[in-house]
Each structure stands twice: as C-alpha cells, then as structure tokens.
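Training component of the fellowship. As part of building independent skills, the fellow (R.M.) carried out the full modelling exercise for a liganded target. The chosen ligand was adenosine-5'-triphosphate. The inputs are recorded below so that the supervisory panel can assess the work.
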Amino acid sequence: MKINVKNTEETIELGKKIATSLKAGDVVLLDGELGAGKTTLTKGIAKGLDIDGNIKSPTFTLVREYRNGRIPLFHMDMYRLENSDPFEVGIDEYLSESGICVIEWSEFITELLPADFLRIEIKKIGDESREINLSGVGDHYQKIVEEMGKGDE
Ligand SMILES: Nc1ncnc2c1ncn2[C@@H]1O[C@H](COP(=O)(O)OP(=O)(O)OP(=O)(O)O)[C@@H](O)[C@H]1O
Ligand SMILES: [Mg+2]
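Fellow's submitted model of the complex:
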C-alpha cells in the first residue's frame, strides 16, 4: 500500500498511526536511502507508543531501548554493523524479547530476521515529499496494512 506524505510532520503522523496496530514482539523493517526519513518515522512510532523523550539515531550504538512507553521499543540501525557480530550486539535477543523492533538497514542482518514482518519503504520524491510503501509478510502484518488502508480517503 502506498501513502504519499508532504512533509516531516506527516511522516511522524503516519508513524503514530502505525504504532496503534503494533503489539509486543512485532518487527518493522525500515528501508530507504540515507536521509529518506526512517528515523523520523520511528519518532512517530515512539510517539504512538507514548514514549517520552527524544528518539536519537542509534547509528553508533546500533540499538537504543525505550522502555517508558506502552510497549518497549528497540530502535536499531545496522548501517554501521560492519565487522561486528550481530550476536555480540545482542540483536537476536532483542528480536526474541517482547518489545517492538524497528530496524533501519535490516539488509545487513537478513539471516537473523524472522519470517514475518512489516516492511516500510520510504522513497524521496522531492525535498519534503516522500512515497511510503507498506507491505506485510504474514497474516498479522497483512492485517496491519489493511487497517492502515481504511478510512484515509
Ligand atoms: N516528508 C519527510 N519525512 C521525513 N523526513 C523528512 C521529510 N521531509 C524532510 N525530511 C527531513 O529529512 C531528514 C530525514 O532524516 P532521517 O534521519 O529520518 O533519515 P534516515 O532515513 O533515518 O537516514 P539514515 O539512513 O541516515 O539513518 C530529516 O532531516 C527530516 O527533517
Ligand atoms: Mg536513521
């Protein structure tokens, strides 16, 4: 399902809306070039989970945990995984914990990913406009995408 957003605020709103259908244990993959808006969308998801405080890019730390919301959020950015062992970083443990894993640059850990997930692809259209493509693999995530398609005419 494709959604067009006009600015940062609309991306954050979309993240908030997505968060309302997420549950503990869910995995969300965020794809898109550098600066597409993956971390920005994560900020929206965090807001939707009632997480207080600033969401910072976990580029150097690889994972940031936010446990003060409705459901724990584990925000991961695998871009700088480089030669680190994802097991050493504990990625597999986060994936089996009962929080929501939002993963930027998941292509670097494909072998650790579960079979089912929500994939969100962000494409830069202009300075501030983005095309956001949601696809669900597995029943649960397909339902989330269907839900998102309702009532947005
Ligand atoms: N519609 C939009 N949605 C999201 N971000 C936007 C939009 N329009 C402009 N921006 C700007 O684009 C930048 C997106 O940065 P962000 O850190 O979210 O990207 P990213 O995809 O996480 O990049 P990286 O791969 O480097 O982690 C921000 O500075 C944001 O303000
Ligand atoms: Mg980012």
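The panel noted the following from the submitted structure. Residues 74 and 101 are 5 Å apart (CA to CA). The chain is about 30% helix and 25% strand.
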